[in-house]
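Checklist before submission:
- one chain only
- standard amino acids only
- sequence pasted in full

Submission:
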Amino acid sequence: MKNLIIIGTGGFALEVYEHAQNSLGYGSEYIIKGFIEGNIPCDYEKYKSLPANVFGNCIEYQICENDIFFLAIADPIIKEKVANIILDKGGEFINLIHNTSVVSKHAKLGSGIFLGAFSIVTGDAIIDDFVMINTYSGISHGCKIGAYSSVMGHVGINGNTIIGHHSYWGSGSRCLPGSRIGNNTKIGAASLVLKKVKDNSTVFGVPAKYI
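Returned file contents:
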């Protein structure tokens, strides 16, 4: 039995705590051991409100036998920095796939992936390492999502769309089929991407425009 350490002590960490208990493998492959701080220090009073023990921070934590990890951090840049701290220590990351998620047998998933409740990954979609796909979001056939990207709730990534690494999609955003989204991009909540977003840019609106 593996012991899951959730990296993060904020609101998303609480979501992950509950999500993990409703994900594939809980109770048979892993149990929850507790939390460690990621990028944001947490005071003692907040520690007391968390539902499991906090074992210090990701830099100081000494990995134990049977430990596995999950990143409860949504910011793509910070997510990579914290992941590398644990990976450099030899840590292993788990996928948390909610019991209500639907994943095609032809899809390819990396490691450290979060698939929220009622999320869908269809066809031959490819999801790289440390990607978050939150509740009620759908990834269609032929899509590829680059590493460390975060897709919030109720997002629709339509067929044959290619998304670079470190991309952030706000809640309710959409793109048309065949869109090309660059690296280090931000798609504003409820936006509609018609075709292309350049590297290192932010877009917002319907249709989505650079801001």
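Reviewer check: The chain has two domains: 2-94, 100-203.
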